[in-house]
Amino acid sequence: MIPFLDLKKINLRHEEAILNSVHKVLHSGWYILGEEVKSFESKFADYCGTSYCLGVANGLDALELIIRAYDIGIGDEVIVPSNTYIASILSVSANGATPVLVEPNLMTYNLDPDKIEESITPNTKAILVVHLYGQSCNMRPIKRIAEKYNLKVIEDCAQAHGAVYASRKVGNLGDAAAFSFYPGKNLGALGDAGAITTNDEDLYRNLQALRNYGSHKKYENIYKGYNSRLDEFQAPILSEKLKFLDLDNKFRRDIATYYLNNIVNEHVALPYVEEGPESHVWHVFVVRTPDRSDFINYMNQQGIQTMIHYPIPPHKQEAYKEWNELTFPISEKIHSEIVSLPISPVMDMEDVKRIVEVVNEYRPN
Ligand SMILES: *Cc1c(COP(=O)(O)O)cnc(C)c1O
């Protein structure tokens, strides 16, 4: 079986460095917000090109904390894509604000800038863009709209570490950005982890307190804060893996390019890259096919594991019963037709070639 993603193989490349990091933190005797977290924050800010980076517990917290720090809550609206992982939307709901779903572009799967303005009301406070599947959103028109209506632009970069748009990395394209280092992401920890990047100094200062019980100084609490800190053991592992992120992304890009150039099948629609090649870091390689379950069975029989990102659109989830009767035709079409093919920095090129052959021979039943 060609696995969808071999996480063990990805991490065992760094076995020695990981064991050394654990040893170092163990012997430091300092286990919360120590030197390793500080050092990773500084490296990741440099990598993204931002003034600040703040390590937090996970990607959802990163988004939730940004919205909280901008004081967006009850009665406020935030524009979010209707095609995303549920976490993007949960972060708005968790703050008591209202997520306003806007349809994606069918080619890029990202928020369609032409559909944003019609959803803006006097209560709109921010646009939450998601660089889905690893591809940067089309930020120029989105930023123009944000400026016109005085809205914050918050980036969900959980799938796009290292993607570049107009010579800038994602995480440095809006007012603040959230990253997840969930193990399967392009930069993954060995557990939960996340970060916020920003150039906004006031926001950064607020967030330093918010992630740590609302406190700058121990036992003095200025906000009703959270406990959401990047784990001291995960930080040096992330620092080590960060050194290889660009190489890993390049390898993903090579696989994607091979798929794009060699998969030829009228029943399989390929992904589309809107800007230059660096705008996409291929967190997942998503194709569309009308009879998805037939395609997945066929791939399985041929020994190839696939996944679906994601099978149910957010507005059809039970958690959002209030939206279940709404229709978002583009999102629904995407969610019903997409399948992700294997892609990772440790894949064998022979397996990539085999996948292309198998996909090209696919005929629907
Ligand atoms: C993974 C992911 C998140 C959430 O990250 P966690 O670290 O799992 O909380 C948020 N948004 C998107 C688009 C994601 O893919």
Features of the shown structure:
binds pyridoxal-5'-phosphate, 365 residues, globular, seven-stranded mixed β-sheet
Notes on the structure:
The chain is an alpha/beta fold. The protein is built from twelve helices and 13 strands. The protein has a seven-stranded mixed sheet with strand order 1-9-8-5-4-2-3, sandwiched between helices. A hairpin with a 2-residue loop joins strand 10 and strand 11 (220-221). The protein is globular and about 65 Å long. The site of pyridoxal-5'-phosphate (PLP) has 15 residues, from helix 4 and helix 5.
Question: In a nutshell, what does this entry contain?
Answer:
The chain is of the alpha/beta class and 365 residues long. It is 36% helix and 15% strand.
* Radius of gyration from the alpha-carbon trace, in angstroms: 21 Å
Number of strands: 13
Strand content bin: 5-15%
Oligomer: single chain
Write out the strand line-up for the largest beta sheet, numbering strands in chain order. 1-9-8-5-4-2-3
Give the topology, please:
Elements: H1 7-12, H2 15-28, H3 35-48, E1 52-56, H4 59-69, E2 77-81, H5 86-93, E3 98-102, E4 124-130, H6 139-149, E5 152-156, E6 164-165, E7 168-169, E8 176-180, E9 194-198, H7 201-210, E10 215-217, E11 220-221, H8 234-242, H9 245-262, E12 285-288, H10 292-301, H11 329-337, E13 338-341, H12 349-360
Parallel strand pairs: 2-3, 2-4, 4-5, 5-8
Antiparallel strand pairs: 1-9, 6-7, 8-9, 10-11, 12-13
Helix pairs in contact: 3-8, 4-5, 9-12
The structure holds pyridoxal-5'-phosphate.
